[in-house]
Design a protein that fits this description.
Strand order of the largest sheet: 12-13-14-17-4-3-2-1-10-11-16-15
Number of strands: 44
Structural class: alpha+beta
Largest sheet: 12 strands, antiparallel
Helix content: 10-25%
Radius of gyration: 27 Å
Strand content: 25-35%
Distance between the termini: 67 Å
Length: about 750
């Protein structure tokens, strides 16, 4: 079995010795201050301590709860970065009653009972949507769930905790890019970024301490520490949260629908960054081969000669000299004229992405200067922390310390020349390797820096990219709370198998429900060579994902799979045909925070099956995609309520049920909402490019009422369709030119009116 020589695991929580006291649960409170937006309460605990509780309105439908030893306590990660910014609500109200306090945030209210302490959240009608667990004790009187309070071990605070009651039919999702089942009930996610070595375990590259509930709310914990969520695992009727920080600081966010929660989540954290238009085209990678300028140019020419739609060439590690992957310098022998190469690629319509990471080999010529000037994380004795970040496959490295402004400027200085040469974007790999016992320039411990380090890394790369290239996109592997400002993110180093494709899909859906709409994955799988059929099926999944990259340890170039090249390329052409629809869905996602790749619960939150159906999704609002997840070519697909049209056959199917579908290798199971208007390109080109779409064709799935918004660089166009006798009347308002209408599942005359 492979041995991991270096793993940046979280430290274990301390355990009290037998008989040691240390539980400090809130028992009663009294108001000490209040205003129109919140209340501060002095709390007594079972350990005869005094703690402060603050309950405040942080926006319409958002209530913030803090518990700590003093009013000025803040999460330790705030020393590096602020991840949450509470908002305001002009109509907020606080009502102090006899033994109760009500904090009103419009669509969400917090009702506080002073003695004994209890907290519940209701909607505006008074319906309970969430409340604290009232405590479970066993026959001997011992507590079995964590109370609202804190725990001490060895005389020091081990962490704060909270518990919420969970009805037996409640479903939960989110927590970042979690590759396990979409409904996290019965799981125990820990918010700690791992080098996950695949996409088939609970280890995640991207954690977000936030979850959505099927009862119409979300919970966000503001902490960069390894927060632990026990989602009805220890106790089936309780969600328990442990925060090993200087306080617990969480937000309850009203829905009622997941899209409503995500919109409010964005107001607290940040809006998603819309990638450049060309980024929605195909990205084709060099793979893990020693690369050369000649090979790159031949690859580009072959792509164009074979008519393969592609906008981005990704050069992975070997744009640098083997053994010098940390130098951020072209391999001068294999790339004698990078500026000339980049200019020639630009003339063929290609953007170029380069791989990089924040680890500098101790053998790199860049290492001595950076070490001397304090640009790396250090050990507690002050020495540079040289870590085996590559698990024995590459020399140990220093980890760039992005809490040091001088280190940030130095690192960006390594990237500026590449961007000025014509590189358009960087793949920001790794960044999960901060050891818990490291020390940062700003004094932070590695435990507190570990998760937010990826935000600092991607912020630095995004900023210099925007400075030179004019956009802030990165292609990131790791992320954390607020990482939606770093578009895009991909699913990491997954294995090449059908089960791995399925778990990758689950990770993308969970990440979308965590506020990150622009996500991708290595089409074909990363480790190993996929079988021909898997290559096609995964390429089809990639083609109908928010973003698409063909990448792996072996080649993912379509011509390297000659028996199925035509089927794979046809999937890419379908993507380019759908580009007006995809880009419009992307613009909506950037505006609203709702994902492009939508778990069914986004649009059908009242359907219990929608919280469980995690191997299919809606792409945008109107297309239902069900990637083929087995080599047999047959699977079950859940169609939500309504009527659905098979994209390939035009057959109309009634929803609210599972159907069994079988598709040949050249088709992915794809359905459209009946009545949907899907904008497409009648003659898609080989690139998406930087300009507007020009003429667009509408695909109408059936004759009936439909509406679509077509977003382009020059604004939005609204299209509506209504049945008119035996025909369809289409009205267009906006600048996009509609060339015609194609009907699927119907045959009727069409009249187009432009206003």
């Amino acid at each position: 079995m492979a041995h991991e020589y270096f793993v940046a695991d979280p430290p274990e929580l301390p355990v009290r010795s037998h008989g040691e006291k240390g539980l400090s649960a809130l028992t009663a409170v009294e108001p000490v201050a209040s205003d129109a937006s919140g209340v501060t309460l002095k709390g007594a605990t079972c350990a005869e301590e005094t703690l402060l509780v603050q309950v405040n309105v942080a926006g319409e439908g958002v209530i913030r709860v803090r518990l700590g030893a003093d009013a000025d306590a803040r999460t330790r990660s705030a020393a590096a970065i602020s991840m949450v910014t509470p908002g305001e609500y002009a109509d907020a109200r606080v009502d102090l009653g006899d033994g109760t306090v009500v904090v009103d945030a419009g669509s969400l209210r917090a009702e506080i009972t002073l003695a004994p302490w209890h907290l519940r959240f209701t909607d505006a009608s008074g319906r309970t949507i969430l409340e604290q667990d009232r405590g479970h004790t066993d026959i001997s009187g011992r507590m079995r769930t964590l109370p609202f309070g804190r725990s001490l071990a060895g005389g020091a605070v081990a962490g704060y905790h909270e518990s919420f009651a969970a009805p037996s039919d409640e479903a939960f999702s989110g927590f970042g890019e979690s590759f396990t089942r979409l409904d996290k009930r019965g799981q125990r996610p820990v918010m700690w970024n791992f080098d996950a070595f695949g996409a088939e375990s609970q280890r995640a590259y991207k954690n977000v301490p936030f979850y959505l509930s099927s009862r119409g709310y979300g919970v966000l914990v503001d902490s960069g520490t390894p927060v632990e969520f026990d989602v009805c695992q220890s106790t089936n009727s309780c969600v328990q949260i442990v925060v090993p920080d200087d306080l617990i600081d969480y937000y309850v966010i009203a829905g009622p629908a997941p899209a409503d929660v995500l919109g409010r989540f964005d107001l607290l954290t940040c809006k998603p960054l819309l990638p450049p238009k060309w980024a929605f085209g195909t990205w084709i990678s060099s793979g893990f081969f020693v690369d050369t300028q000649e090979r790159v140019l031949n690859r580009a020419r072959t792509i164009r000669e074979r008519g393969i739609p592609c906008d981005v060439l990704h050069l992975d590690t070997y744009w640098q000299k083997d053994g010098h992957w940390s130098d951020l310098q072209w391999d001068a022998d294999n790339f004698p004229d990078p500026e000339g190469m980049l200019a020639e690629l630009d003339g063929m319509g290609f953007k170029v992405c380069l791989w990089m990471n924040p680890y500098i080999s101790h053998l790199s010529p860049a290492f001595p200067e950076a070490a001397e000037k304090g640009y790396f994380l250090r050990k507690q004795d002050g020495e540079v922390y040289v870590a085996d970040c590559w698990h024995g496959s590459y020399p140990p490295c220093g980890i760039v310390d992005f809490t040091n402004p001088a280190a940030v400027e130095w690192f960006q200085g390594l990237l500026r020349p590449l961007l000025r040469q014509g590189v358009q974007v960087f793949k920001t790999d790794f960044a999960e390797g901060v050891p818990h016992d490291a020390v940062a320039f700003n004094g932070m411990a590695g435990t507190d820096l570990h998760n937010v380090y990826t935000l600092l890394f991607n912020d630095a790369v995004s900023a210099v990219t925007k400075e030179i290239a004019g956009h802030g996109m990165v292609w990131a592997r790791s992320s954390f709370l607020g990482g939606q400002r770093h578009s895009a993110q991909w699913g990491g180093d997954t294995y090449t198998s059908y089960p791995a494709m399925g778990s990758t899909l689950r990770g993308g859906l969970a990440h979308g429900l965590s506020g990150v709409p622009f996500w991708s994955h290595d089409a074909g799988g990363f480790t190993g060579r996929p079988t021909d059929d898997l290559y096609v099926r995964w390429t089809q999944f990639g083609a109908l994902s928010p973003l698409l990259r063909l990448h792996g340890t072996t080649s993912r170039e379509p011509w390297e799979f000659p028996e199925v090249e035509a089927q794979a390329v046809e999937a890419l052409r379908l993507r380019y045909r759908l580009m007006p629809y995809l880009y419009s869905a992307a613009v909506e996602a950037a505006r609203t925070g709702a994902p492009m790749m939508r778990a069914l619960c986004v649009d059908y939150p009242d359907d219990p099956v929608a919280w469980q159906a995690d191997l299919q999704y809606l792409l945008g609002r109107d297309l239902l995609v069900a990637p083929m997840i087995s080599p047999e070519g047959t699977r079950r697909v859940y169609l939500p309520a309504g009527e659905w049209v098979d994209h390939w056959t035009g057959e109309v199917l009634t929803g609210g049920r599972y159907v069994t579908v079988s598709t040949p290798l050249d088709r992915i199971p794809l359905f459209a909402r009946r009545g949907a208007l899907v904008p497409v390109l009648a003659e898609p080109g080989e690139t998406v490019g930087d300009g507007t779409f020009g003429e667009v064709t509408l695909v109408a799935y059936g004759v009936g009422e439909g509406r679509a918004t077509i977003s382009d660089l020059d604004g939005d166009t609204t299209v509506t369709a209504v049945g008119d006798g035996d025909g369809l009347r289409v009205t267009v308002s906006g600048g996009t030119r509609i060339a015609g209408v194609e009907l699927v599942g119907a045959d009727a005359p069409v009249v187009i009116t432009t206003i």
